[in-house]
Amino acid sequence: MSGPHEAQQPDQARQPEPQGADAPPVLARRDGRVGHLVLNRPRAINALTMEMVGLITEQLQEWEADPQVGTIVLTGAGERGLCAGGDIVALWKDAKAGGREAQDFWSAEYRLNAMIDELTTPYVAVMDGIVLGGGIGLSAHGRIRVVTERSRIGMPETGIGFIPDVGGTYLLSRAPGETGTHLALTAGQVGAGDAIALGLADRFVPSERLPRLLQALAETPAEEAVDALAEEPPPAPLLPERSWIDAAYAGDDAEEIVRRLRETGTEAADEAAETILTRSPTSVAVTLRALRSAAGMSLREALAQEARLAYHCHASADFVEGVRAQVVDKDRDPRWSPASLAEVTASQVEAYFAPIGEHELTFPDDPHTSTEA
After folding, report:
1. What pLDDT is stored for residue 322 in this prediction?
2. Of 134, 154, 168, 322, which is the active-site residue?
3. Which SUPFAM superfamilies does this chain map to (predicted)?
4. Residue among 157, 178, 306, 321 flagged as catalytic
5. When comparing pLDDT for 135 and 15, which is higher?
6. Which residues are bridge partners to 83 per DSSP?
7. Which of 239, 240, 261 is nearest to 250 (CA)?
8. Does 109 qualify as catalytic in the annotation?
């Protein structure tokens, strides 16, 4: 699990928000033609809870039906980022207790991800600072995804015994060449240039211009407002590495990928191989297969597949152990089972894709009027 983004951020980058113990975890306000959603758990880098998913869903339904709302914009309170993902400790506690709250959360969250993708009202996500896991689900499916020089974007799931979800397999399977596979298996993070190059974001706006962007969105159509303040993004460091990335990450065998990385002969490839070997071997193997499957799926289909994977991950020893090691005890020494890629069998991987009966993810005919199956 990646550490917090420690860079100090100017006070004017985000408008002051209520952050006390009694403040709601999601703020919603109207400003001219824009409906503005603010994730409001800054001490937790706005980590998502079931309550937050419900509040966002209800507000999006209301604004989608309101002809006076010309744009919906999403930002995060505090100085560290838009959203660090789901409240992983709560999900870990549920897994240890053998509960089903996590599956209820994921089902509601994944339906919200599909809703964001299918909105007719322009949706602008300001992906400033840390945007991980569930934060990508709230932003990268939007129509206009804005990054800044402070953006750190990634899917850290293989490091905690999980899989890239919230449509992550869908998004990363469509990145140029095998760059998405590289990001998924290593659980890496990228900055603004790579986020745009990989298809996780669209436009680069310097952080000092964010207050002006929010004001412009209240007064002018979304595309026009963003275009007026965006500039050329910084370089994308992954793109010059595609020659070895595409060659090494081809195919469906994670062990073979690590072998090719080691044979590439570059420091970056060696580091990637060593990083993958620290991740949950089962998660790496399952993630690789999920990426290949998702390449031919719609977003809804990929989310339904991810719901199955999440269900089985939640019941696995690696998820409990991974969160313990990375987030709870923070000893950074997970004891994976199986312990190596060589020990992960095809039947073990196949089991993660097995149907989950009543827990299968379904979607309403109109995602903007109901979140119930």
Report:
1. 96
2. 134
3. ClpP/crotonase (SSF52096)
4. 157
5. 135
6. 131
7. 261
8. no
Instruction: Report whether pLDDT(367) > 70.
Output: no
CATH code of 80's domain? 3.90.226.10
Q: What is the pLDDT of residues 239-267, one digit of tens each?
A: 999 999 999 999 999 999 999 999 999 99
Residue 168 — pLDDT band, cuts 50, 70, 90? very high
Catalytic-role residue among 87, 117, 165, 194: 165
Query: Of the residues 208, 229, 250, which one is the last residue of a structural domain?
Result: 229
Residue 1 pLDDT > 90: no
Active site residue 253: no
Q: What is the pTM of this model?
A: 0.92
DSSP state string for 265-327: --HHHHHHHHHHHHS-HHHHHHHHHHHHHHTTS-HHHHHHHHHHHHHHHHTSHHHHHHHIIII
pLDDT band with cut points at 50, 70 and 90 for residue 15: very low
- C-alpha closest to that of 325 among 47, 1, 85: 1
CA distances from 360 to 94, 303, 311 (A): 19, 10, 9
- Last residue of one domain, picked from the residues 210, 229, 248: 229
Residue 250 lies in a domain: yes
Q: Residue type for 286, please? A: V
Sign of CA dihedral 305, 46, 180, 324: negative
In a domain, 42, yes or no: yes
Distance, C-alpha 320 to centroid of its chain: 20
Same domain for 20 and 42: yes
Q: Is residue 340 included in any domain, yes or no? A: yes
Catalytic residue among 35, 78, 81, 86: 86
The sheet with strand 123-127 has its strands ordered as 26-31, 34-39, 71-76, 123-127, 144-147, 203-204
What gap in Å lies between CA 71 and CA 64, rounded to an integer?
Answer: 9
Q: Can 358 be counted among the known catalytic residues? A: no
Question: How many structural domains comprise the chain?
Answer: 2
Q: Tell me which residue range forms the domain holding 262.
A: 239-359
Instruction: Please confirm, yes or no, whether 98 is among the known catalytic residues.
Output: no
Is residue 6 very low, low, confident or very high in pLDDT (cuts 50, 70, 90)? very low
pLDDT tens-place string over residues 323-351: 999 999 999 999 999 999 999 999 999 99
